[in-house]
Amino acid sequence: MKAAQSMSLDDIDSTRRVYTVSDLNREVRILLEGRFEGALWVEGELSNCKYHSSGHIYFSLKDDKSQINAAFFSRQNQSLKFRLKDGLKVLALARPSLYEARGQYQLYIDRMEPQGVGSLQMAFLQMKERLEKEGLFRVEHKQEIPKFPRTVGVITSSTGAAIRDILNVVGRRFQGTEVLLYPVRVQGDGAAAEIAQAVLDMNRWGLVDVMIVGRGGGSLEDLWAFNEEAVARAVYESRIPVISAVGHEIDWTICDLVADLRAPTPSAAAELVVQNRDDIQNRFKDYETRIRNSAVLLVGDLRERLETLKGSYAFRQPLAIVEQHSQHLDELVRQLQNYIKTLWSQKNHELRGVCGKLHALSPLAILERGYSLSFRSDGSLIKDTKRIKVGDAIKTRTGKGIVHSQVTKIE
Asked: Could you tell me what percent of the chain has a pLDDT over 90?
């Protein structure tokens, strides 16, 4: 019995398979990837989004009960138009797998789009929100469009309908206005960079007074180059006024919001920037007619006033008017002389009265009544005998003169 038991344990030991952690994780990854062949769509809410310097994006997908980690590598996220952020609900085309180094179950994302709205529309809304916070849409930054530009710069495709429409409108409205075309691609990869560079070059050259940036209508994808940040910042920093004319009247792009003026179509942009020569000439003719009519009315009014003055009494009897004014002047002179005499007499009488009052209060008037004042040699008034001594020279003022004397005795 013991021998049989020992054989059983040996058999068990010989058939036991031992996995390393790495082996086990690899087996689990292979089983998991084999269970889900290819990619599958997963919906959820983004959480813990982190953009790595390598270009990879790491986040979690969650619902109300569970969550799973996910990685969106730079090779796959190059075409992503909108920015991932926490709380955004998305649909992700993903491959379930296991990160062997950590034994971490996760998703590898191949493609992603926001739920309820297209990825391009989401990117447009995110870009609009961010640039609006930076102040790129503020009205106070927008420049005035010149009324009579000599040269109009146009940034668009050389083969599209936009440039033909602009040239037709300019030629019809005001021949002689120069149009400088900077041909660019208006859709597809690299189009936004060409448009932005064209705006910068136009500013560097300084050959145009205003720019029209745009293209004809199309889908949101076709117009996307005008929603790129590079184009928005080039238009915002332009020293030359920019009119954005992208698509049809119902189409709006980031370029429209940043530009100094938005036109619903390229043709409308040309009409906004170039005045109609016939309208201007008709306006000048109207001004000329108004000036001529006003001049005729003014001359007629002046002539009528002149005739009235010619028949007035002043022109018929000019000497009589002069004599009347001369007589009136003599009368005024006499009135003035009488007024001066009366005023002189009144003021002289008032002066005499004041002088009499001053004389009555004067010390000299007191001296005239028999009193006198004595002064020391230094001119100070003697009010007390203690201030003098025998032998001092003094002066005595009377009402009729001054007596000089010397003190011989003090009582």
From this structure: 34
